[in-house]
Design a protein that fits this description.
Chain lengths: 483, 483
């Protein structure tokens, strides 16, 4: 796969033209999708290049000299962002061609996704102009690019920290959500790409770019439709060996497929075809943004388990039963611990109202951090266990006090870093009171623990699903290595 | 089904003995499962009867005169709560028989659920003593009864308000969770029953009681195992006509079934059998406490829809697609709105970057409450639509201001109360920033709106699943009425 140097200028532009910035745009105005807000977004992200607003009716906007057209800008333009009414788009594109500006993010919407005849026709014209002029169109009907390292992005309050995760999405709203929530899961971004109706550049083009992008290690995708399915399959099969591909294929139900047509005017494709796609590529399936985030967190921070046998350390007999059901449904095994482990556990755990078989229901250890540590060690040493989910109630913190919480965080971090047992451990917090101190503690640990290699999940379903798919990914690679 | 007057005294006791209250129990000590904490719980709930702590080594505990045995208490005892080590249980039960006290909540655990031979034998002995002595044992290994009207309960900080919902559960932890979180879903309780290993009274006995209980209108159940499945099936089939039965049958996976044995020593039964059970009874299936809570909220506050065709009013094209997928997967239909409705919507909604087909992706209406109201009216009037899910981002509140939020709450309440369109409407809030003001607003609306007949769901999955099962319940009743 070859590096695409022309596309690279779109991802790290020095000169950006923003067409359609309103003449009375003010700094500090509430964010609204469109070029008028993008200027502020760039500035928030510390963009170091030059921004040229384009508006035929203004000479200066927010202190920036404003040009009447792209072709009147006095230097070569690396990226043009177009946010004008749909009818005005053909002229703007002709202007870009005249200016020899090739990378065009078309925010403008209102084409085949409306289902209106006129709008569909206009879309065809736009596509033709772009192809004739050799324009690399990102969109139309999309939010374009967020690249923290380059200081560019179309949403407010984005993080300026870079990281190894890319998102490639036909939904700008999903980009918005993921870009903002990623950090809560310990996720930082290399490139976030909203590409909408994909007139010129399609998922396969961006994927080619991300495959060669040295900054990107994990690729998340939200796809509605694909133009060249065979190419995508071949690409993902290849890339997935090196950079895990986590893919949400939306619109697989009949209703969803209809919604796809109204959103990006794409053809969603049949469910059976996509099942085959996943089976052949080994791509990691997801069905929501939360799932994408949870799985990305898992790929980022968890060491591959040797098998899929999980131990769950929790609280409450009913929870044990549902934990076992949940893990089994997600594809994990929940074996009974060995006799030896049980004998050791019995030395400090009374069996009345408890269970040490697995899932473990041992309330005692959530009142004494040293006992929890001892239990984790014993479970981790059990040869029947490949991975551990610890599932404490947050109100444990109130019982043991802040010192012991810090001790536990350190213990878990050491456990993960030293990896003496070669078994991943993840956390699933329960909350019982929904009190402010609990929400604060959860928010803090949700950021601190993943950084130390201990992912934190909101639900046991999320934890077990992510671990199961993570294991299956590595199993797929192992099998393919043997083939 | 006959009212059981003897059981009634257990649910509204005037005289309660608590065996095993520790001699040095202090008021205000942190709650821990066991009789020592139960005294405080009763007091918190405003229990108006008399509490007799029983402890052979004390004469007074927390200012209450303490007795050496149940039989030394100077008046007839309506309910005995036993929280002693398992080995001491047989003697306590003999004491109860001598005192002619029949209703015994056995908190004590440590029997067949441990899998230990000695403990299993002890359990058989206990069961034999109870049967010989005609004791109505609740438990063992359980948290017993929470009845707000009677001022009794085993957990701290319980609500003292009564309501129409009963929970019957083999897990005390689940009772704890549901009792505390119920109010967040607008749920208040008639009776919450934790019955553990079910030595004497089994689910079918409690169910008989709840069926005749005038205070109970909806029955939620968490079951691990059942002694008399045929009886349960007959009962649920009958009761479900009048009082919806929402049932979580746990332990249906192999791992879950093993966990059931370790928890309440029950036999979980096969998945196929339980599928048949649901098909024959029309009971509403649930697979977690959250699902139980969401469905209970739906049964409490939603008027039965005539069909299963849903309109989703949301924000973002990607969200539209996933909304359609989610609704379809949960069993709802998402039809395209009629041409007439679309024509009316187009009068105030531009199609660029929007969709008015269904799901509706119309960002505009979330910036102007009057437009949202207009949109809801039009969608509700569409003959192809049976129910509506409105799915706003919470940050809408920041855009429109508190006055408009109040206006919207009033509009939604009126919509639901007047029910002019005969179509239920529910809310699914998205949150984008996780900021304190958002959490506060969500918490407030989550309580206010259900009270006005507008249930609020955390996720679209929850909303569509609840509506689908709610519709299926009523469909089942209609079909049976025809049969």
């Amino acid at each position: 796969m070859s590096w695409n140097p022309e596309l690279e200028t779109a991802f790290s532009p020095k000169v950006v033209a923003m067409v359609g910035v309103s003449a009375n745009t003010k700094r500090g105005a509430p964010w609204r999708p469109g070029a008028s807000s993008f200027v502020t977004c760039y500035e928030e992200l510390g963009f170091q290049g030059r921004i040229y607003p384009v508006n035929p009716k203004a000479t200066e906007i927010m202190g920036l000299k404003t040009y009447h057209s792209v072709s009147s800008i006095p230097e070569p333009v690396d990226l043009v962002i177009v946010s004008v009414p749909a009818q005005a788009l053909p002229d703007v594109l002709e202007d870009c061609i005249a200016a020899n500006a090739k990378n065009i993010h078309v925010f403008t919407a209102g084409f085949e996704e409306t289902g209106e005849e006129e709008a569909i026709e206009l879309g065809s014209r736009v596509r033709q102009i772009a192809l004739n002029g050799g324009l690399r169109i990102i969109g139309p009907n999309c939010m374009g690019l967020y690249v923290p390292r380059a200081g560019i992005g179309s949403f407010e309050r984005l993080s300026s920290e870079s990281g190894p995760v890319a998102l490639l999405s036909q939904s700008g709203g999903h980009c918005n959500w993921f870009s903002h929530y990623g950090p809560d899961y310990g996720i930082k971004f290399s490139k976030v790409i909203s590409f909408g109706n994909a007139y010129v550049l399609d998922s396969t083009d961006y994927l080619e770019y991300l495959a060669s992008d040295p900054e990107t290690e994990i690729i998340c995708m939200y796809l509605e439709g694909v133009k060249d399915g065979v190419k995508l399959l071949r690409q993902v099969r290849e890339i997935n060996r090196v950079k895990p591909v986590i893919l949400w294929k939306a619109g697989l139900t009949e209703s969803g497929s209809r919604a796809v047509a109204s959103h990006t005017g794409s053809l969603a494709g049949e469910e059976a075809i996509w099942r085959g796609f996943f089976a052949q590529t080994g791509a990691v399936p997801a069905f929501s943004l939360e799932e994408i985030a949870e799985m990305t967190m898992t790929f980022l921070y968890v060491k591959p388990p040797r098998g899929k046998r999980v131990a769950v350390i929790g609280l409450g007999g009913g929870s044990s039963v549902s934990s076992a059901d949940v893990c089994a449904r997600e594809g994990l095994e929940v074996p009974t611990l060995t006799r030896e482990t049980q004998v050791e556990l019995k030395k400090f755990i009374s069996l009345a109202g408890a269970s040490i078989k697995n899932p473990l229901d041992t309330g005692l250890v959530f009142r004494d951090v040293s006992l929890l540590e001892r239990e984790i060690e014993l479970v981790a040493a059990d040869p029947l266990i490949d991975m551990i989910i610890v599932s404490p109630h947050l109100d444990m913190a109130k019982r043991v006090g802040p010192d012991q919480v810090d001790r536990l965080v350190k213990y878990l971090s050491d456990f993960s870093r030293d990896n003496a047992f070669d078994k991943p451990l993840v956390i699933n917090f329960h909350s019982f009171a929904n009190e402010p101190w609990e929400n604060e503690l959860r928010a803090r640990l949700q950021v601190e623990l993943p950084r130390e290699g201990v992912p934190v999940f909101d639900s046991l379903v999320g934890a077990s699903r992510s671990l199961a798919r993570f294991f299956e990914y590595h199993q797929f690679l192992r099998r393919r290595a043997i083939d």
